[in-house]
Specification:
The protein is α/β, with parallel strands linked by helices. The chain contains three helices and seven strands. A seven-stranded mixed sheet has the order 2-3-1-4-7-6-5.
Length: 148
């Protein structure tokens, strides 16, 4: 797999207000968002993109439901890696599966997002790890093909 750069790191939280209190109020990070949704910034020094992702939104993105399945380990963070193109996303998914990692969903094939997500319980740090391209949601990533 040819990883171009780390696209995003996000804390996954079941308690968004408490996490925002830590990262925005206590640490002073310049995160922006709305309500109990995703808060993020591309302006945290040393990071291309940092976010606080509500668990309900992570569940919706991975499973199409606001509840994380009770039979799966709840991820504590999400790390997204940029790859070259849609073919590379599909290849990344196949490569990860061949290495024994379970995908939470296959490579998505839509206009807004191409990504595969590795199952959290297969990683000892309980991370959701994504390989993707075209992550175009402006709340989630600064639009750039070059590392910060």
């Amino acid at each position: 797999m040819d990883v171009l750069f780390i696209t995003s790191v996000a804390v996954v939280t079941a308690d968004p207000p408490r996490s925002r209190s830590l990262f925005i109020d206590a640490l002073g990070l310049p995160l922006e968002g709305e309500g109990d949704g995703y808060y993020s910034s591309g302006d945290v020094a040393g990071s291309k993109h940092f976010g606080v992702w509500p668990l309900s939104q992570a569940a919706e993105a991975c499973f199409g439901t606001p509840s994380w399945p009770p039979d799966r380990v709840v991820p504590q963070a999400s790390i997204e890696f940029e790859v070259a193109d849609a073919d590379a996303v599909a290849a990344a998914g196949e490569e990860l599966q061949s290495a024994g990692f379970e995908l939470l969903h296959p490579a998505l094939d839509d206009v807004e997002r191409e990504a595969v997500v590795v199952a959290a319980e297969k990683h000892p740090a309980a991370l959701a790890i994504e390989a993707g391209i075209g992550l175009v949601d402006p709340r989630r990533i600064r639009q750039s093909a070059e590392p910060a």
